[in-house]
Design goal:
Layout (H helix, E strand, L loop, with lengths): L3 E2 L2 E2 H10 L2 H6 L5 E3 L2 E4 L11 E4 L4 E4 L5 E2 L1 H9 L3 H11 L14 H26 L4 H9 L4 H6 L3 E3 L5 H8 L4 H6 L3 E3 L6 E3 L4 E7 L5 E8 L7 E3 L15 H11 L1 E5 L2 H10 L4 E3 L7 H8 L4 E4 L5 H16 L3 E4 L8 H8 L1 H9 L3 E2 H11 L6 H16 L4 H15 L3 H16 L32 H6 L18 H5 L1 H6 L8 H15 L1 H10 L7 H15 L6 H8 L2 H11 L9 H32 L3 H16 L1
Parallel strand pairs: 14-15, 14-16, 16-17
Antiparallel strand pairs: 1-2, 3-4, 4-5, 5-6, 6-7, 8-11, 9-10, 11-12, 12-13, 17-18
Helix pairs in contact: 3-4, 11-14, 11-15, 14-15, 16-17, 17-18, 17-19, 23-24, 23-25, 23-28, 24-25, 25-27, 26-27, 28-29
Length: 652
């Protein structure tokens, strides 16, 4: 049976997931180590020092216990490269030589329709701003300013540069006349709501507009530069459904083919640098947008390049930013070189003063290694004409050289250092070797960390895991599910039932708050339903979508529909059918849970009973509140009547 997701045939999505193994896909961006049947690594979507990012090869999904990001191989590519679902599937299909053809047999989802409207609005807004710059009196001062900066009409057209007049509602009127929903446009970052909440105003006014495109070349945001002096100099579109500045690089869409061909990207700080370099013949240039380089930026570059040339401004801020970029790029598996610009000069200024040919020869082609750059940066802070300055520089430079793994490289830099500081090569080499020994010595306590968890006998009172008063029922004592006591009895809490059923989650998040019993029961039901179609059928007949958490109810409904299409249990493919980020994360977390996959009717009935208790308990709580109000009002007859109703409900 054939179905479609977002107008992409199910067969195409299945083929993409089959051809793109989750471990291989994630492994291009994350260093993974095997831990049992899992692969663990540092999450690329948030900063962390202890790995909480987990890949499960047998289920073909990933999940981060730190930030909650999860999904299959398609979802990973979407997040790491800033792609939409269709874009990710198309790129992955092309990489695996799978025929890709979108069809129009099924209506788009509401999210896809909203995304399509926003993309259309941004495209029209870009053309509107561009027209205003080149063809109106409003744009004349901006046009003269750009030409004075060396940006001629050819580059203005190439990069779609425009101008937003210094008026309150120019774009608002333009969009409104074309029947765009202004509330939707405000959510998408094109316009702003008035402070009194009545109507909308232009977000950008009196600014030169630089369109920002995604990797497919579609405009998804703007950067507005103030005309003349003022603060802030640049204003970006706010983050939206389309735009996340930590995952978007300026000009990546245009530069991608050149980057792929040369296997190198040139990384700039500003829009003007990229444009000036393009006119000079450097077509593989990209830039961050008023934000520091992120792991996502580096991962995005890694998809098409092996090497990055960092070409930041020659001032202290630019050089410090270049230093900070090196470990991020290297961690992504990229070779790194640094352009050595004169102090205080940015690439745009250099090109306008010296010409494009000289920029390519002396800046791009003569880029320095990261070690040479680090040493040059250190050298700036020391006076080598003074003995104390040479000694201090040598002390600062030796750890940089000692960190090199190649003996040949170390010798080359030590000989250069020897000449610079007038100290013998042998003395420097001896000091370098001592530093290497110190660098490679294990830190205290890192020799053998031993087992993460102590023996069960050391767990403390109340059970194997040390939780006092936990009631795990027959599961803890007999290694299976009993008829009673599975959930801690009597309408109370699971205790730490979820952690005991699913030790993987306990190890990953030992300090997290315990879930209420009904939530854990719902998660357990969904976990078993994901593994077994018969379990899903059983739950559908007896519980339907009467889950207490809305997201669990939604997941169950999607799962019933998934199996109704004669699909076999497959967490990865089920996630692709959702196309809802919140639900994708929830399913990924549930699918990653550990515990027996076997089930029987008693197990499911116990869970269902726990889920159904919640409305009853809430009803009892509401009646208690009614009883207290009746007593407060002096209506003791009504209070007694309600009390008898509460007793009857509790007996049920």
């Amino acid at each position: 049976m054939s179905t479609e997701y977002g107008n992409i045939p199910e067969e195409t999505i299945d083929a993409v997931l089959t051809q793109h193994d989750i471990v291989e896909t994630v492994g291009r961006h994350v260093h993974l180590t095997k831990q049992g049947k899992y692969m663990k690594g540092l999450c690329p979507f948030h900063s962390e020092k202890t790995p909480s990012f987990t890949v499960t090869p047998d289920r073909q999904i990933f999940y981060c216990y730190g930030c909650g990001m999860g999904g299959n191989a398609i979802k990973f590519r979407m997040e790491i490269e800033g792609l939409s679902f269709p874009e990710a599937v198309k790129i992955m299909a092309e990489e695996a030589h799978i025929p890709f053809q979108s069809t129009s047999g099924k209506p788009e989802s509401p999210q896809d329709r909203e995304t399509g409207r926003l993309l259309q609005a941004y495209e029209w807004s870009e053309k509107f701003y561009h027209f205003l710059l080149k063809n109106t009196e409003h744009g004349r001062p901006a046009l003269e300013y750009l030409r004075g900066r060396g940006i001629g009409d050819k580059m203005i057209d190439q990069f779609g540069i425009g101008f937003a007049p210094d008026r309150w509602d120019t774009l608002v009127q333009f969009l409104d006349k074309r029947s765009f929903d202004l509330t939707e446009m405000e959510k998408g970052g094109l316009i702003s709501a008035k402070q009194n909440g009545e109507g909308y105003v232009d977000r950008f006014r009196g600014r030169i507009m630089f369109p920002i495109a995604n990797r497919s070349g579609k405009t998804i945001a703007f950067a507005g530069r103030i005309l003349g002096e003022g603060h802030p100099k640049y204003v970006n579109s706010p983050e939206s459904r389309l735009f996340n500045k930590s995952r978007v690089l300026y000009n990546f869409g245009q530069a991608r083919s050149a980057i792929r061909k040369q296997r190198q990207a040139v990384l700039f700080e500003g829009y003007g640098d990229v444009i000036a370099a393009w006119e000079a013949g450097v077509h593989n240039g990209v830039a961050t947008m008023g934000t520091s380089l992120t792991e996502q930026h580096a991962a995005m570059i890694k998809t098409t390049a092996d090497e990055v040339l960092v070409c930041y401004d020659g001032d202290n801020a630019g050089q410090n930013a270049a230093l900070k970029s090196i470990p991020i790029l290297e961690q992504a598996g990229l070779q790194v070189k640094i352009a050595m610009l004169p102090p205080g000069v940015d690439p745009d200024d250099y090109i306008r003063s010296n010409g494009g040919d000289r920029f390519i020869r002396q800046v791009v082609e003569d880029a320095a290694s990261t070690t040479k750059f680090r040493l040059a940066n250190l050298r700036r802070g020391h006076r080598l004409t003074e003995e104390s300055g040479r000694v201090d520089y040598a002390r600062a430079a030796l750890p940089v050289i000692a960190a090199l793994t190649s003996p040949t490289e170390r010798e080359v830099y030590l000989r250069e250092l020897s000449s610079e500081v007038d100290v013998s090569f042998d003395s420097l080499k001896q000091d370098c070797n001592l530093i290497r020994q110190e660098q490679n010595r294990p830190a205290p306590g890192q020799g053998d960390p031993g087992p993460v968890y102590s023996d069960s006998k050391q767990g403390g009172r109340g059970g194997q895991y040390g939780g006092r008063g936990r009631d795990r029922g027959d599961y803890a004592n007999k290694g299976g599910y009993g008829k009673k006591g599975n959930f801690g009895g009597g309408g109370g809490n699971y205790g730490n039932a979820e952690e005991d059923f699913f030790p993987q989650e306990r190890r990953a998040r030992p300090n997290r708050d315990l879930l209420p019993a009904y939530q854990t029961a719902e998660r357990r039901l969904l976990f078993l339903m994901l593994q077994d179609r018969q379990a899903s059928d059983y739950v559908e007949q007896r519980l339907g979508n009467e889950f207490n958490l809305p997201e669990h109810a939604a997941i169950s409904a999607y799962l019933y529909a998934f199996y109704a299409q004669d699909r076999e249990p497959d967490s990865s493919r089920f996630i692709s059918s959702l196309q809802d980020e919140k639900l994708e994360k929830a399913v990924s977390a549930i699918a990653m849970m550990e515990g027996p996959r076997e089930w029987n009717e008693q197990v499911l009935d116990d869970c269902i009973r726990e889920v159904r208790k919640v409305p009853q308990l809430r009803g009892i709580e509401r009646k208690r509140e009614d009883m207290m109000r009746a007593e407060k009002d002096g209506d003791f007859l009504l209070a007694a009547q309600i009390a008898s109703e509460i007793i009857a409900l509790e007996r049920q």
